[in-house]
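Hi F.,

I've been meaning to write this up properly since the lab meeting, where we talked about keeping a consistent format for the predictions we share between groups. The idea is simple: the sequence comes first, exactly as it goes in, then the structure tokens exactly as they come out, then a line or two of notes. No screenshots and no reformatting. I'm using this chain as the first example so we have something concrete to point to.
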Amino acid sequence: MKRFFIIIILFFACNAKLFAQNNDLLLARQYAQNGDTQKALDIYLKLYKQDNEAYYQQYFNALLSAKKFDDAEAITKKLVRKHPGSYEYTIALGTIYTQQGNTDKADAIYTDLVKNLPADQNEIASIASQFYQNANVDYAVKIFQQGRKILHNDALFSFELINLYRYKRDKNGLTEEYLNFLPSNQPFLGQAESMLASVYEGPQDYDILKFALLKRIQKDPQQLIYVNLLTWQYLQQKDFAQALNQALALSRRQNDDGSNIYELCTTLSTNEAYDEAIRGYEYIIAKGKDNPNYVSAKIELINTKNLKITSGKYTQADLLGLEQDYLNLLNEFGRNRSTVFAMQKLANLQAFKLHKLKDAQTLLEAAVAIADVRPNLLAACKMDLGDIYLLNNQPWDATLTYSQVELGNPNTTVAQEAFLRNAKLAYYTGDFNLSRRQLDVLKAATTQLIANDALNLSLLISDNLAIDSAGAALKMYARADLLIFAEQTDKAILTLDSIGKKYPGNALAADVLMAKTRILIQQKQYTDAVVLLKQIADNYSDNLWADDAVFMLGDLYENKLNNPALAQTFYQKIITDYPGSLWLNDARKRFRLLRGDKNEAS
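Output, unedited:
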């Protein structure tokens, strides 16, 4: 029983001591935070005397903060002598000399440590970690590099070195480490591409990778991971021809089905590298009809030709040739659920470029009647069919088709788009009150573009009806708007120019300028579009189109006219002059990206 009481007394005594020490630590930290360094040091010294090793780090850090380097050196050397095999105190000694400015003395200690590393992987990792924790990344790298030599294994510590090089933003080191690592760790290719992209800052950095890859491919041409990474490098540099050449060379060497080429062509088309995408699809098609990518490549080849032709200057012969390509494809594969996508593309070509409205309507009516078409594709075809009904002077069929899409896709962006098209139909046909009621519902649409379109059209109608309740000038403007939608630009311009003559003093001056701007953008005449947009921004700064004009100027300068500095100016103008604009968030995001912010959301 007496022994039991002694144990209980010792237990409470130990706990009381520990409680007191914890209180002292908290008090010392409080003194340090309040700038009372000496009082904090006195407490740390008291604790250190109670237990050298348990409170060494706290006392050591406090001494360094107070620049009492001699005292820090004394206690550290004492522990170095006590524990000659412990690298923790040796590294701490080097830290003291570094903070004193005596880097030669610190380097001598560290160099000796590197030379005498133990042949133990875990111990080496621990030592490197201590250097990293002491903010000495360079020596952490040297420790791992020396560890590889001692252990005769260049594959060790790859993850650690990759992270250290990334932390240092050592582009050469990171590049070489990944090139050593990837051949035996190919699933990490995507991670490597992502990390390199986050560190590289321009063409010169990507050239580091390109030259390193070319050198390795020359030495080891069978290592396909290098070819894949080189293709990615060319894509980042927007050298699309070389990217495709590398991918084609790899596909031929492997004699594969071209699936990687098909994926690459999608990227090329997205980047408007249409010639390269066409070459890639033609390569897949040449593999024959038994190839699993044959049908998809055929369809995408024609779609890419479509994009190439319609995105630039084209002739009637170009359009007719493209139409024949689509017809040949449908004749080869039939009109079925697999070719509905091509039917939709052909119908749009016929309706808006060739103005063969009856042919387009017949084709889309056949497309929407095909069973088991993907819901999203079916909805897109129906909305296009509604547009063609509208252009064919069949407004009742148009509104019925739009309504079918809306009811068939409840609570979706597709439904909101269909509802917007119904509102525009009412506007085009002069039923402004119905259109305005529908547009007012869409002002709260989840999609910003739809909400913005609805708001602008609603304000256009309201502003003009307030001046002219009969809406005579507005009806003429709506007819011009419909002609622009139908891509009958000559007729649209004649109508727009007639508004001012027939209805002098109307309130549509800025609207006419915006309509003409849309025509110019449709025709790729971006410089001329800029002139009109500046007129709107300068002369009609209070008009509903003012913020749209400013944002469009930023967009044109950024994406079409290659002038990011001017683009940044116009995005800034949205932020400062139009804080209530629906374009505000987009303008802020683009401004920050052009300014070079690493985190666009900051």
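Notes:
The chain has 32 helices and no strands.
Residues 410 and 416 are 9 Å apart (CA to CA).

If this format works for you, I'll send the rest the same way.

G.
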